[in-house]
Design goal:
alpha/beta, Heat Shock Protein 90, Rossmann fold, 5-stranded mixed β-sheet, 10 helices, elongated, two-component regulatory system, phosphorelay sensor kinase activity, coiled coil, phosphoprotein, kinase
Length: 460
């Protein structure tokens, strides 16, 4: 029996799974290459697209910036035009204010001249023996003239304050003395109405302009007395840190809420009862307007509080002075007689010259009146007695000045001549010239009692 024959080993062909795996590796590699290429393409596309988008955004922003810049430039040009218009309007307003002030100054001079003559004539009339009815009429005329004078001066003051002409001269002031003087001047009017007038003030000095502060407080006290029918008026100063608050308190009719914003306006008169100045005369409606302007010029805060039917408090706050008050010089002795004194008048207004001549003659003075320097020269050449004192108007005819008359007479007369200069012109340079020449200045309308006192003092 033959042995079985073993089959020879047969070499296996390549396996199909290996081929498939190799193919898959190749495909995967190709896919990776493809993916890498696609990613590169996408990145390149994104970069190009972002740059384009940025480019587009830049163009858009540039357009917006240009538009906004043009709009802003237009607004700036419009603002410049508006500022130029405002500057021009401000200059026009200031020019108008200055023109108004000059006009009022000139007009007040012309108005005060006949008013001065009328008051001097009225004073001369009052020196004559008059029937009671004539005396009463003369008193009414005097009050009317005083009202006109107050109105003209107040309007001029308002104009000067609005134009910024008034320049406060701040110095140390003894407040107790000032308040005491005010109280004394108003006490007769308060007592006439049955009112109490009291003052409370610590020993303190304040920094202010004496003339302006006095005017402010005069107007406030006058208003308080005017509009208080019963009770009284209190003038009190209270320390407030480094400041002093001055209160003018009354028990008058009070001011309603709707009126409080109006009381400091021009020509506004309170509607409350109990008013009147003791003569039944209404106020001008300018006092508080002046107060507001002067307080603003001094930078003194002003406040008002009031309850209808209970009274009013007006407060003014001032700084305490850091320097002491200068001692006032002792008052000089005053003479009392004008008898025989030769008074030389130079006045170009005929009615004023005549009224002044008559008034001085009533005081037993010898009077020589002239219109100008030429008349004075001619009279002296004709043997006129040398004068003892001169009363000269500042503004004479043809632009001449009363101070020229004073200079001439002082040069030709051996004895020193005292001079009183009268004027209705309130320009500060006139006062400066008078001070420089040692001349006493009196504002028109001249008050007869003040003139007589000054004459007797200067002749002593």
């Amino acid at each position: 029996m033959n042995a079985p024959v073993k089959d020879a080993p047969v070499k296996d062909p390549p396996r199909a799974d290996e081929a498939e795996a190799d193919l898959r590796r190749r495909v995967a590699k190709l896919e990776r290459i493809n993916a890498a290429l696609m990613a590169h393409v996408e990145r390149s596309t994104d970069q190009q697209g972002g740059a384009y988008a940025l480019f587009q955004t830049a163009i858009t922003l540039e357009g917006r910036v240009r538009s906004r810049t043009e709009a802003l430039t237009g607004l700036m040009r419009e603002l410049e035009r508006s500022n130029a218009a405002l500057v021009s309007a401000k200059e026009e307003a200031e020019t108008a204010n200055r023109s108004k002030t000059r006009f009022l100054a000139a007009a007040s001079h012309d108005l005060l001249q006949p008013l001065n003559a009328a008051r001097l004539s009225l004073s001369a009339l009052a020196d004559l023996p008059l029937a009671p009815e004539a005396g009463a009429i003369a008193g009414q005329v005097e009050r009317g003239l005083q009202t006109i004078e107050d109105l003209i001066k107040t309007l001029l003051d308002i104009s000067k304050l609005d134009a910024g002409i008034v320049r406060p001269e701040v110095r140390a002031l003894a407040l107790p003395d000032l308040l005491a003087e005010l109280a004394e001047s108003f006490r007769p009017f308060a007592e006439r109405k049955g009112l109490r007038l009291a003052v409370r003030c610590p020993d303190v000095a304040v920094a202010s302009d004496g003339v302006l502060l006095r005017r402010i407080l005069q107007n406030l006290v006058s208003n308080a007395v005017r509009y208080t029918g019963a009770g009284g008026v209190l003038l009190v100063a209270r320390p407030r840190g480094g400041e002093i608050r001055i209160d003018v308190i009354d028990t008058g009719c009070g001011i309603g809420t709707e009126e409080r914003s109006l009381v400091f306006d021009e020509f506004y008169r309170g509607g409350g009862k109990g008013g009147g100045d003791g003569q039944g005369e209404p106020g001008l409606g300018l006092g508080l307007s002046i107060v507001r302007r002067m307080a603003a010029a001094l930078d003194h805060p002003l406040a008002l509080a009031s309850r209808p039917g209970h009274g009013t408090r007006v407060s003014l706050t001032l700084p305490v002075s850091v320097v002491p008050v200068e001692a006032a010089p002792a008052p000089p002795p005053v003479a009392t007689r004008l008898s025989g004194a030769h008074v030389l008048i130079v006045e170009n207004d005929a009615s004023t010259a005549e009224a002044l001549r008559r008034l001085l003659q009533n005081w037993d003075a010898e009077v020589s009146a002239f219109r100008d320097l030429a008349g004075v020269r001619a009279a002296l050449a004709a043997g006129l007695r040398e004068p003892d004192i001169l009363v000269l108007d500042y503004h004479l005819d043809d632009g001449a000045c009363g101070l020229d008359v004073a200079a001439y007479l002082r040069a030709v007369c051996p004895a020193p001549l005292p001079v009183i200069l009268t004027t209705a012109d309130y320009a500060p340079e006139i006062e400066a010239r008078a001070d420089l020449l040692g001349v006493e200045l009196m504002r028109k309308p001249v008050k007869p009692a003040q003139l007589r006192s000054l004459l007797t003092y200067m002749l002593a």
